[in-house]
């Protein structure tokens, strides 16, 4: 069987088009009702669908502003600084919470890769391998200063479960909650990729940085590409995509907050939903309702946030390489 990626490519005229894709994918994900997540009719811990839409809009504006020609010539222009400034934009505006840290982390190397390709004025048509080779280059050339910016971003985001992932003390010299973390990063000359390697075995977002998005790329090729019609805004397809990802790998945020057993339990419940037919059967819909209720009762501890972020990332890939 031929590798479908051999025939995949995209053709965009500007960085603004790519920024629109990132925004549309994020909006598509959050607009789809999903178990355990904030949605158009589901408020969790005081955070609403409108809050997510507001932050997505602010990030879209920030992305355009950051890649202005004047900013590109600044000594602070880097992926680490971009991540920090994006997170700062998020937490400095209502509802002043960490809503989209994972989304920001996942799309940052992608937008920098596109910018690099576009500024080098390569042929407008970019194939699958060229794009992902550039993403890998962006991640591989991060610096210790990028690592410091990353540590600052994680600190101001107040990300859940960082100190005790899986209800166990973090076993790493590079604890972002330490006041001395910046000095340690400089002394050890740890790049941003090096720092993600410290958590790649239990965090799927970190793993994407260390494997050049292996999970997201393969998930797109194996589970999304074979679909006859593009996902576009089809709610049922996005919800199924979310459930398939949740059933494939334990949610990292649930693991960090609750431990392995709980994360595996949620994963297994998602598998049961898929086996029951997902949203196409009454049995599947009933199981989704039961799972959502269980998650809501946890008051945020069972929020499958990483699964939502991975879903948005796959949607970016789908929209970019849309046949």
Cα(first) to Cα(last) distance is: 19 Å
Total count of strands: 2
The domain tally reads 1
Number of helices: 16
Report the radius of gyration as a whole number of Å: 19 Å
Mean pLDDT: 91
Envelope shape: globular
Going by helix content, strand content and strand pairing, the class is mainly alpha
**N to C succession of SSEs:** EHHHHHEHHHHHHHHHHH
Uncertain segments of ≥5 residues (pLDDT<50)? none
Percent helix: 55-70%
Biggest pleated sheet: 2 strands, antiparallel
> What share of residues are in beta strands?
under 5%
Which sequence of strands runs across the widest sheet? 1-2
Account of the protein in words:
The chain has 323 residues and is mostly helical. The chain has one domain. Helices cover 62% and strands 2% of the residues. The chain is built from 16 helices and two strands. It has a two-stranded antiparallel ribbon with strand order 1-2. The radius of gyration is 19 Å and the shape is globular. 42% of the residues are buried.
How are the SSEs ordered, and which strands pair?
Blueprint: E1 9-11, H1 15-31, H2 49-66, H3 69-72, H4 79-91, H5 101-119, E2 125-127, H6 128-140, H7 144-157, H8 181-188, H9 192-197, H10 204-210, H11 214-224, H12 235-248, H13 252-258, H14 260-275, H15 282-297, H16 305-320
Antiparallel strand pairs: 1-2
Helix pairs in contact: 1-2, 1-5, 1-16, 2-4, 4-5, 4-7, 5-6, 5-16, 7-8, 11-16, 12-14, 12-16, 13-14, 14-15
Task: Fill in the keyword field for this structure.
323 residues, single chain, 2 strands, globular, 2% strand, mainly alpha, 16 helices
């Amino acid at each position: 069987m031929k590798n479908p990626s051999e025939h995949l490519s995209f053709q965009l005229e500007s960085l603004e088009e790519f920024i629109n894709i990132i925004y549309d994918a994020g909006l598509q994900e959050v607009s789809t009702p999903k178990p355990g997540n904030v949605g158009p009719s589901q408020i969790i811990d005081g955070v609403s669908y409108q809050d997510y839409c507001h932050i997505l809009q602010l990030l879209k504006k920030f992305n355009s502003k950051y890649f202005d020609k004047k900013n590109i010539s600044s000594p602070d222009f880097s992926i680490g600084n971009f991540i920090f400034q994006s997170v700062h934009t998020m937490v400095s505006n209502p509802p002043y919470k960490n809503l989209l840290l994972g989304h920001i982390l996942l799309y940052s190397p992608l937008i920098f890769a596109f910018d690099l390709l576009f500024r080098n004025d390569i042929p407008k048509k970019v194939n699958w391998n060229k794009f992902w080779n550039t993403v890998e280059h962006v991640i591989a050339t991060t610096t210790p200063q990028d690592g410091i910016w990353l540590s600052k971003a994680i600190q101001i985001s107040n990300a859940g479960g960082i100190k005790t992932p899986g209800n166990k003390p973090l076993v790493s010299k590079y604890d972002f909650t330490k006041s001395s973390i910046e000095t340690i990063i400089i002394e050890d000359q740890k790049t941003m990729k090096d720092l993600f390697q410290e958590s790649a075995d239990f965090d799927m977002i970190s793993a994407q940085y260390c494997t050049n998005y292996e999970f997201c790329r393969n998930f797109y090729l194996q589970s999304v590409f074979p679909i006859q019609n593009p996902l576009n805004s089809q709610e049922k397809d996005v919800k199924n995509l979310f459930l398939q990802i949740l059933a494939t790998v334990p949610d990292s945020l649930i693991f960090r907050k609750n431990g392995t057993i709980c994360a595996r339990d949620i994963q297994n419940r998602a598998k049961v939903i898929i086996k029951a037919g997902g949203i196409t059967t009454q049995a599947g819909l009933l199981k989704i309702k039961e799972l959502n209720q269980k998650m809501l009762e946890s008051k945020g501890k069972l929020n499958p946030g990483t699964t939502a972020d991975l879903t948005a990332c796959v949607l970016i890939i789908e929209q970019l390489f849309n046949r």
